[in-house]
Amino acid sequence: MSSLLIKNIKTLAQTRDHIDAPLRGKEMAELPTIDNAFFLIENGKISDFGEMKDCPTNADETIDASGKMVFPCWCDSHTHLVFAATREGEFVDRIKGLTYQEIAQRGGGILNSARRLRDTPEEVLLEDAYARLQEVIRQGTGAIEIKSGYGLTLESELKMLRVIRQLKGMTDATIKATFLGAHALPPEFKENRNGYIDLIINEMIPRIADEGLADYCDVFCEKVAFTPQETERIIETGLKYGLRPKIHTNQFNCMGGIQAAIRHNALSVDHLEVVNEEEIAALQAAPNTIATLLPSAPFFLNDHYPPVRKLMDADIPIALATDYNPGSSPSGKMSFVVSLACVKMRMIPEEAINAATLNGAFAIDCQQDMGSITRGKSANFFITKKISSLAQLPYSFGSNLVEQVFIQGKKV
Ligand code: NIG
Ligand code: FE
Question: Does residue 250 line the site of ligand 1, with CB under 6 A?
Fold first, then answer.
């Protein structure tokens, strides 16, 4: 039995008893906190917390957090952090005027990453991905979803998913794996779209499920990628093999991706930079589906941001994630995403923090163990530097205010 006591905490944030549904509507603006708090961790789990007047007197180790705040770790529910190479050439091409879609149509973008990944040995991918993972954990991320999707052949998709499986064994942070074979149409199937979809359905998904390599199934439903009909074929097969859908959709076009995802009980629909009234109504009628917004993608692509207020007014639960990937968001820094959500989407800090912690946990099904300061959950949390208020976290967007990170009660 080992115990860690954190005392004199200026504010302990996101303190909750059991909560069984993602936050929506007005709930998003309520972030429960305790001022002048203590926080007790036993054997890697949250065992107690409350006001200092009720603070226990001894523990194996004590930290004085005077002037500092404590938050549950970020839950980053959408990333592509296994990749072979950065793509700053495309970044410069966009500055000079090309769009993300034009670059994709010329065989760059995801296909560029896929060519690089095919030639990169598994050990190298693992080493690089592990370094990125450690970096984001030090920035306060305690649970993360990672997608395949730069393989686009059976062997390379398996290679990516095996890297993710190895990462799971190398960290105490929670990792969920998503199969994204339908990220782009590989050039060898240019004249045979159905051939690639058949490969995904008949070979990739069964093999991946057989090896237990994925938790979820994703499709990029977009004009430069796959249609809603193709998306449905793939996610139907995923569901048959126990992989619940989490879908990339509405990044650039409204084309029925949200409706296709909802019909198959998607856990989340991600991006949503463009959404029409019909799609908002469809989401409103699908309370089990979370809208995951990725504001660092439109930031980096210099595009427009999702209509978050409309979505929240329709009682749709919102999660925030980084989309960490080499093309549209080469950053896994959740605190920057929270700042962008506040500045560019006009979320108040409480809404953004709820979306980046508890609702993020729901978006990867780890709400039983993550996302809030709740007795019995894993002690994944961070202590800030001395700060004057909760709003300083998104306000000081260029500073690193995360001082110490703990995963399962252990200091990182
Ligand atoms: O979420 N849009 C599709 N997939 C990623 C980008 C992948 C890439 O450009 O490498 C995204 O933005
Ligand atoms: Fe993505």
Answer: no
